[in-house]
Amino acid sequence: MKLQHTLGGLENLGPVNVEPRVFVQEWEKRIFGIHTVMMAESAHLANALPKYPVATLPTAFRETWTWASLRTGAESMQPFEYFKFRYYEKWLMGISQFFIDKGYISADELEQATASYRIQPDAPLPHMPNAPVKQQVIDYLLKGDSGQRPAPGAPRYAEGQTVYVADPPAVDHTRLPGYLRNKKGTVSKLYPGAYNYFVSTGPDGIGEPMPVYRVAFEATDIWGDQLCEPNTNIYADLYEVYLQTPNA
């Protein structure tokens, strides 16, 4: 997990891909669309700040699917497999395995459907118009599924304060970039309110809503003088649990 999450500064991974397009191939748009519909139908929206009619939504999908689900599926891949596949190929693998694990489709059925479309790539895809689900997707894209919540207490840190990034145990998914672990930074902004994540990350520390900070780092403190341009700052938004004082 530490290896695959946010690889900034990790050496010997080959040339950097500077492809500017979000979608390089047409099938990638469909994978993004499937993920978005799953998010818009997810059971967790029943507790979101926007009031969604999840219980009455005409869909057979009754699972919880969030960004955390997608990222956990990708980041739990065997590292050599993770680096071998393209971005949306990882999405496809995670989504496919999720539907198999939940019993919506069997591995054999998926293999048969895949083989059929390889023979007839232009064959029509299943199409089931559903106006309420379409509207739910639009509402979800406009309103999201979380938001600012009341702060549980006073923030631990203030703007201008020096902090060090913690090094929590590796778990299935984290919101802490690996290259920032144990690095020194300065709080440049305290966001109002408190925020939580889609799931509890256990030993990683994210659970109940907590303050979130924008922390500034000198690039040379992260990667060293030889690998950085002078006077370069890196900014990261970090949950409070990921920060500690210099003498902690």
Give a quick summary of the entry:
The protein has about 250 residues and is α+β, with helices and mostly antiparallel strands. It is built from 7 helices and 5 strands, in the order ααααααβββαββ.
Description:
With 248 residues, the protein is of the alpha+beta class. The chain folds into two domains: 26-143, Cyclin A, domain 1; 162-244, SH3 type barrels. Helix content is 31%, strand content 11%. The radius of gyration is 21 Å and the shape is globular.
List keywords for this structure.
Cyclin A, domain 1, alpha+beta, 5-stranded antiparallel β-sheet, 5 strands, 248 residues, 11% strand, 7 helices, SH3 type barrels, globular
Map the helices and strands.
Blueprint: H1 26-41, H2 67-75, H3 79-84, H4 87-101, H5 107-119, H6 131-143, E1 162-165, E2 184-190, E3 212-218, H7 219-223, E4 233-239, E5 243-244
Number of strands: 5
- Number of helical stretches of at least 4 residues: 7
CATH level-3 fold name of the largest domain: Cyclin A, domain 1
Distance between the termini: 25 Å
Q: Which class do the helix and strand fractions yield?
A: alpha+beta
Largest β sheet strand count, sense and barrel closure: 5 strands, antiparallel
CATH architect. name of the largest domain: Orthogonal Bundle
Radius of gyration: 21 Å
Mean pLDDT: 87
Residues in helices, as a percent range = 25-40%
Domain module count: 2
Q: State the name of the first-level CATH class of the largest domain.
A: Mainly Alpha
